[in-house]
Prior knowledge:
Shape: globular
Organism: Stygiolobus caldivivus
Helix content: 25-40%
Pfam families: ABC_tran, oligo_HPY
CATH superfamily: P-loop containing nucleotide triphosphate hydrolases
CATH architecture: 3-Layer(aba) Sandwich
Keywords: ATP-binding, Nucleotide-binding, Transport
Bound molecules: iron/sulfur cluster
Order of helices and strands: EEEHEEHEHHHHHEHEHEEHHHEE
InterPro entries: AAA+_ATPase, ABC_transp_ATP-bind, ABC_transporter-like_ATP-bd, ABC_transporter-like_CS, Oligopep_ABC_C, P-loop_NTPase
Number of helices: 12
CATH class: Alpha Beta
GO molecular function: ATP binding; ATP hydrolysis activity
CATH topology: Rossmann fold
Amino acid sequence: KKYFEVNKIGLLERLLREKPIYVKALDDINLEIYSGEILGIVGESGSGKTTLGRILATLDVPTSGELYFEDDKITKANLSKIRGKVQMVFQNPASSLDPRMKIIDILSEAIRKLPKEERSKLIRNTLEEVGLDYEYVANKYPRELSGGQLQRVAIARAIITSPEFIVLDEPTSALDVSVQAQILNLLVKLQKEKNITYMFITHNISVAKYVSDRIGVLYAGKLVEIGEVEEIISSPKHPYTQSLISSVPSLTKRNLTPPSGEVPSLINPPKGCRFNPRCPYVMEVCRRAEPPLFEIGGRKVACWLLDQRYQKQ
Ligand code: SF4
């Protein structure tokens, strides 16, 4: 079932206060999110992935395009209906949790409308669900907990309101590798048990592969490829996705081939395909025209190589 539909979403961002420069942090993004799935969103910094997550978590409003929630167009009038169903977990729990509040109060605030007794029971249960001991953490302040414990608290705060959809923005990037694995397993377990829909944002394609059902790849504010995780990992079609996958270190691989060059500045992005200055397969058309999203099987890829006219015979 289609849960969210993102239709030509764009966001203009103001960069400087004194002499404003506007950049398209997101440009014409089209995608769907299905109920009960984990959609991984992968990209380097500056690709627009957090901006997309914030729009879906209703924290930012797009400057163009439309957003549909269960077939209803999201407008200012019905935003509150969606807000209650959506949560976001951020990369750095230390800065997303109020340092002056005890853990019990942080969680209590999220469910302040419930009667006191119900609240206490729910807080106890939720802390247990995320693997924390109520007696140990409830009366502590965030500074008294480790990074992994804090991220568990942040996850508890997100799930305590029984959301249908959670945007996870690099939830394990600030953690040690061993703790990362524990948090990933916890998130996958909670998603399955509660049938929550996730958008999982990460710069790490291995992490995306581990958790996701489908993967969407963003590059410089554009969606360049989206499809089932096995297909994307085993046969990436977009040259950028190919280079992301071949730059993942493994215990057996010695030759890494990361994409050459830098992510382009959004102030003055390249004409045509934004990946063209870094692409080993660049053609004349790539420098003049932006590729549309071509559909092949269940996959969508924004690259002229998928157009029959440019395929080598
Ligand atoms: Fe490379 Fe052209 Fe495809 Fe862009 S459209 S990824 S430049 S081949």
